[in-house]
């Protein structure tokens, strides 16, 4: 079992298009409704501002779920130094290597890695025992939150990808509530969403619906 254990089913990736005060409200509501992981993604702000946001999110979450920082290992380290509860990072292919993140953040940190090609999957098989906890795989469908996304995999493409790795795979990119059961049925350890919660009129209700859909499919061995 990974450091995440079974806490993989529902990830909320933050949307930096929202005013941060509103984002805090969304996160608080979504975590109360059953989100397992919040990932701070803030590509348009300075490192100092992202550190401020990480500390504020840590306070808002108050240990109710995991908090990961997207891309910026330095911000995760700085937030921990400042006393924030940051549990790890999610890294893209152009970020610091997962091995470096593991050395800097320690053995108990959670480290996710974006993967969407056969080459990425092969790289994840390299001698990295205990380095990578899960793969973020997508996009599933075209999405406005990532305009430079690779070709969409769809559910079938995700299934083929996940079948080729022993690492837990999280489906991301354009995922809606109606996709969750099919993705879980074909091997997804969980789903990650942005707009499905951040863009909802009622973020708590949206999170509860996604949580219910994720829990409705019981996959023996998922997140093991």
UniProtKB/TrEMBL annotation:
Residues that bind 4-amino-2-methyl-5-(diphosphooxymethyl)pyrimidine: 39-43, 70, 114, 146
Superkingdom of origin organism: Bacteria
GO MF, one example: thiamine-phosphate diphosphorylase activity
Cofactor section: Mg(2+)
Pathway(s) where this gene product acts: Cofactor biosynthesis; thiamine diphosphate biosynthesis; thiamine phosphate from 4-amino-2-methyl-5-diphosphomethylpyrimidine and 4-methyl-5-(2-phosphoethyl)-thiazole: step 1/1
GO cellular component: cytoplasm
EC annotation from Swiss-Prot or TrEMBL: 2.5.1.3
Record keyword Methyltransferase present: no
Cofactor binding annotation: Binds 1 Mg(2+) ion per subunit.
Domain Thiamine phosphate synthase/TenI: 10-197
InterPro entries cross-referenced by the UniProt entry: Aldolase_TIM, ThiamineP_synth_sf, ThiamineP_synth_TenI, TMP_synthase
Keywords (A to Z) from UniProt: Magnesium, Metal-binding, Thiamine biosynthesis, Transferase
GO annotation terms (biological process): thiamine biosynthetic process; thiamine diphosphate biosynthetic process
Catalytic activity: 2-[(2R,5Z)-2-carboxy-4-methylthiazol-5(2H)-ylidene]ethyl phosphate + 4-amino-2-methyl-5-(diphosphooxymethyl)pyrimidine + 2 H(+) = thiamine phosphate + CO2 + diphosphate; 4-methyl-5-(2-phosphooxyethyl)-thiazole + 4-amino-2-methyl-5-(diphosphooxymethyl)pyrimidine + H(+) = thiamine phosphate + diphosphate; 2-(2-carboxy-4-methylthiazol-5-yl)ethyl phosphate + 4-amino-2-methyl-5-(diphosphooxymethyl)pyrimidine + 2 H(+) = thiamine phosphate + CO2 + diphosphate
Positions bound to 2-[(2R,5Z)-2-carboxy-4-methylthiazol-5(2H)-ylidene]ethyl phosphate: 143-145, 174, 194-195
Pfam families, per the entry: TMP-TENI
Residues annotated for Mg(2+) binding in this entry: 71, 95
Functional note: Condenses 4-methyl-5-(beta-hydroxyethyl)thiazole monophosphate (THZ-P) and 2-methyl-4-amino-5-hydroxymethyl pyrimidine pyrophosphate (HMP-PP) to form thiamine monophosphate (TMP).
Family the entry assigns: Belongs to the thiamine-phosphate synthase family.
HAMAP family: TMP_synthase
NCBIfam families: thiE
Protein name as catalogued: Thiamine-phosphate synthase
Gene that encodes the chain: thiE
């Amino acid at each position: 079992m990974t450091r995440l254990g079974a806490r993989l089913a529902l990830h909320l990736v933050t949307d930096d298009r929202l005013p941060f005060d509103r984002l805090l409200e969304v996160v608080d509501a979504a975590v109360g409704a059953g989100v397992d992981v919040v990932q701070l993604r803030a590509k348009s702000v300075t490192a100092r501002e992202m550190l401020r946001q990480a500390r504020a999110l840590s306070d808002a979450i108050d240990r109710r779920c995991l908090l990961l920082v997207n891309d910026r290992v330095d911000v995760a380290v700085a937030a921990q130094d400042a006393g924030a509860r940051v549990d790890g990072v999610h890294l893209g292919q152009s970020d610091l290597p997962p091995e470096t993140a593991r050395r800097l953040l320690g053995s108990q940190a959670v480290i996710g890695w974006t993967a969407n090609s056969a080459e990425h999957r092969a790289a994840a098989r390299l001698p990295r025992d205990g380095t990578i906890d899960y793969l973020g795989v997508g996009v599933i469908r075209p999405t406005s939150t990532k305009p430079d996304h690779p070709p969409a995999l769809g559910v079938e493409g995700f299934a083929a990808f996940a079948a080729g790795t022993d690492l837990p795979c999280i489906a991301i990119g354009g995922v809606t509530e109606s996709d969750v059961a099919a993705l879980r049925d074909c091997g997804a350890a969980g789903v990650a969403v942005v707009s499905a919660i951040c863009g909802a009129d009622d973020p708590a209700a949206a999170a509860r619906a996604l949580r219910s859909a994720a829990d409705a499919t019981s996959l023996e061995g998922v997140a093991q």
